Amino acid sequence: MLTIQKKLTNSFYALLSLPATAVGFCLSTQVAALSWILSTKFNLHIEDVALVWLAGPVSGLIAQPIVGIMSDHNWFMGGRRRPFIVIGGVLGAAMLSALPEIGFISNSTGLSIFSVALILSLMLDLSINVTFNPARALIADVTTPGTERTKAYSWMQVVSGTFGIFAYFISVAFGNLALIYLAAIVVLLFSIFPVILIKEPRELNTKVISVKEAKSESSLINTIKLLFPLYGFIVFGLFVVINKIVLSGAWNNIQTAVMCACLAATLILGVITIGKGIKKPSDQNDLQKILLAHSFSWLGIQSMFVLSYFYITEKMLPAIDTSNVIADTFSRFFSNAAQTNEQTAGNILSLGFLLLNLVGALLPVLALEPLSKRYGKVKIYTIAIACMAIGYAMLYLSGTTEIIFYLGMFTCGIGWSAVISIVFAIMTEKVKAEKMGVYMSFFNFSVVLPAMMTPGISKVLSDVGDSSFLFLILTACLSISLICWLFVSESPIKQINDQTGS
Known about the structure:
The protein has 23 helices and no strands. By secondary structure, it is mainly α. The protein has a single domain, classed as Growth Hormone, Chain: A (Up-down Bundle). Residues 206-218 and 494-502 have low confidence and may be disordered.
């Protein structure tokens, strides 16, 4: 074991963050480049692009539970998380390298551009799903609940967010193709070398549970009960898969109505869940409320990732002087070349997400961690979500102005900094350590299931004919998430210690 791991130094926290950073860098590259390359290079429609992005949630639903169970119960290559991080990293690097070659692969195989894009996106997201939960579970494995674990997840976001800033800077300064190739290298290196140096504990620090209790916790019935607040998302996810993949869009005319019905059902189930928690508080109920709250957060975030490019091209570019765009100054400085409208839209998107990640990188250690220690993680997290809702509202009201767009993204970064840092510390204090991989996969359902609603959101925007309506939807999503978080209780230190047997 490295000395820095024994002493839990800041350098170890940084090293521990690199596998998750690899996944974050891959996601940043997707956000900056995928919608752009599919729209500008291969002329796919907004709904086709949303369908390509659907590959990620579908692969997550399949891969996450399997990887979670396997990484909890298997020891291979000197670790339970290491094999999955390495395999996912190698696969992710390969798929990133293949993205610019979609046209070549299409011509060579005879498959359509859409089919190749869908397959590559599916494999890329599969690599993310294979890697991300083990990378996050690894942090929980080598730290104890409370201040130490909160610090570890805060460092994860600082390192990951810093590289996210770098990713969007590369996109603005040198273009998305340069970013894609760089991302392939970063993902490969950060997925392999850190986990070789980090020593995983063979035995986790957990309290002994009975065989009966263990079977109960891992049973299918218990899983179904845990996911109760997400049933509406599950139904719409099944609808989308059947409609888009099996029936080739035959049910498109009822998609919006089905989505609204599923969202209404989710809200009703959420009220029931919160009501049960008021009558009989428990960690299980709190975990359900966290899943519910996080699902609405991610519905807004994923829709922002996928559809913001179309908002910029349809609403911002016609409203601004494209000869004097702030984001283009970086590209002109480094490339000394005039920017097309397509490049300008990509530059604005990347600069906006750069600002989002700038806040996301700096805030966890500078503010969120110390404030969480003083006032409680749940309270600070709730405030951060409120800031994100305000940021989306700002973008809806006046986001067509370039400066306001950047200011709105900067404000949303406060929520983003918490969504991918503190929430993991909150969630892991509600579950047993020996089931961390499985519960990470359950928690990821609150990400992948809402993400499957993105095609529904894109259909609404197409029907309305006003892409600025996107940010009104996102404001509503984050506001609902905020309300749900108000009913989540803080885990007392005594309860955390009892849970882990410390």
